[in-house]
Specification:
alpha/beta, Ubiquitin-like (UB roll), 2 domains, five-stranded mixed β-sheet, rod-shaped
Length: about 325
C-alpha cells in the first residue's frame, strides 16, 4: 500500500507574498471597471438633469401657450360684421350670435374663443332662429373677427288656414309661422293667401307648387301694369290644390284666376273685356270676372246673371298676333 506524501509546505514568507500579489492583481483589474461604471453613472445623471430641465421648459412653454390661447383674451371674438340681402335686423343677428358665444365652458374657458367656435354649428343655430334666412355663411377671421353673410328668403307670400298663417318660400315650403307684429315684417309688402278649404298647415310642409307661388307673386304687378287697376294684397283660394286664386279689386269686385293659364294671357283677356263690354261707370256694379277658362270668360253684375263671352278668344289671338308682329318688326329694325 503506497503512501502519498503531503506537498511540501511553502516557506511562510513566500506564501504571504503570493497572497498579497493575488489581491493586488484583483484590485487593479477592478479599478478600470469602477471608472467605467462611474462614467456611465455620470452620464445618466447628466441625462436625467437635462430631461428634468427640458420637461420643465416644455411644461412652462405649454402653460404659456395654453394661457395665451384660452385665457389671455388674445383670441376672444371682438367684432362681428353682418352683410345681408334683405331687411333682417343686423343688430338682432349680432345680438343673437353674441349670446350664443357668450359665457364660459365649465365656468373656466370663454366660449367666444376663436379656436373653440364652430362656424357650422353657429350657422345652423342662427338659421334656426331666423327662418327668413335662406343661406348663411359665418367665416372666422384671425384673430378676433366673425364675418357673417346672409341671403334672405323673399318674404312675399303667406298662406293662412284655420286662422294660422305661415310664410311660404319660392319653393312652396311653409318655413315659419307668421308673426305680422315683428319689426322686420310689413303686412303691406306680404301677399296673404287664404285657403278657404281649412286644410291644416305644418311648419316645414310642402304646401304650394313653385309655379303656383310664382303665378301668385306676379298677379299684382300684372294687373296694375296691364289694366291700371289696384287690388288688395289678401287673396283667396277655394282649395290650394286647385292652384286657383281669387283677388279683390279696391273697387270691391273679384277676379278669378288659374295658374294653369299664363298670367299674360289672362291679362289680355281682362283688358279686352273691360275695353269692349264693361263701361267704366259699370265697374262699381260688377260682382266678378272669371278668367279660369282657356276659351271663355264669365262675368256677373250685382243682382244679375252670369254672362259668357266666347268671342274674346278671337280678339285675344289677334291681339297676340299683333304683339308678335310688333316684336318681329322691332327685331328687324335692330
Amino acid at each position: 500500500m503506497g503512501i502519498h506524501p503531503h506537498p511540501s509546505p511553502l516557506p511562510e514568507g513566500e506564501g504571504v507574498r503570493k497572497k498579497v500579489a493575488n489581491k493586488n492583481k484583483k484590485h487593479w483589474a477592478n479599478v478600470g471597471k469602477e471608472k467605467e461604471r462611474g462614467k456611465i453613472r455620470e452620464k445618466v445623471r447628466k441625462v436625467f438633469r437635462l430631461s428634468i430641465v427640458c420637461n420643465f421648459l416644455l411644461i412652462f412653454f405649454l402653460g404659456v401657450l395654453i394661457y395665451s390661447l384660452f385665457f389671455s383674451g388674445f383670441l376672444a371674438i371682438e367684432k362681428i360684421t353682418v352683410e345681408n340681402s334683405g331687411d333682417l335686423s343686423q343688430e338682432k343677428i349680432i345680438d343673437f350670435i353674441e349670446d350664443e358665444i357668450g359665457g364660459k365652458y365649465l365656468g373656466v374657458v370663454a366660449k367666444n374663443n376663436f379656436l373653440l367656435i364652430s362656424s357650422n354649428s353657429l350657422e345652423e343655430k342662427t338659421k334656426e332662429k331666423f327662418k327668413k334666412i335662406k343661406k348663411i355663411s359665418i367665416e372666422k377671421k384671425f384673430p378676433d373677427k366673425l364675418a357673417v353673410e346672409i341671403e334672405e328668403r323673399n318674404l312675399i307670400l303667406s298662406l293662412c288656414s284655420k286662422g294660422d298663417c305661415y310664410f311660404i318660400d319660392e319653393n312652396g315650403y311653409a318655413y315659419e309661422k307668421a308673426n305680422f307684429n315683428l319689426d322686420d315684417v310689413s303686412q303691406n309688402e306680404i301677399i296673404k293667401l287664404i285657403d278657404e278649404s281649412g286644410k291644416e298647415i305644418s311648419e316645414g310642409e310642402y304646401v304650394l307648387m313653385p309655379s303656383y307661388v310664382d303665378f301668385i307673386v306676379k298677379i299684382e304687378k300684372s294687373i296694375k301694369d296691364d289694366v291700371s287697376m289696384d287690388i288688395l294684397n289678401e287673396y283667396r283660394t277655394e282649395s290650394r290644390i286647385s292652384e286657383e286664386v281669387i283677388v279683390q279689386t279696391k273697387k270691391g269686385w273679384d277676379i278669378y284666376l288659374s295658374s294653369k293659364i299664363p298670367i299674360e294671357k289672362s291679362m289680355r283677356t281682362l283688358k279686352i273685356l273691360l275695353n269692349r263690354q264693361i263701361m267704366l261707370k259699370e265697374l262699381n256694379d260688377l260682382e266678378y270676372i272669371d278668367l279660369r277658362s282657356d276659351n271663355k270668360v264669365f262675368y256677373r253684375m250685382i243682382g244679375g246673371v252670369t254672362q259668357e263671352e266666347d268671342e274674346i278668344k278671337k280678339e285675344e289671338e289677334l291681339a297676340g298676333e299683333s304683339v308678335n308682329e310688333s316684336s318681329a318688326s322691332d327685331e328687324k329694325k335692330e
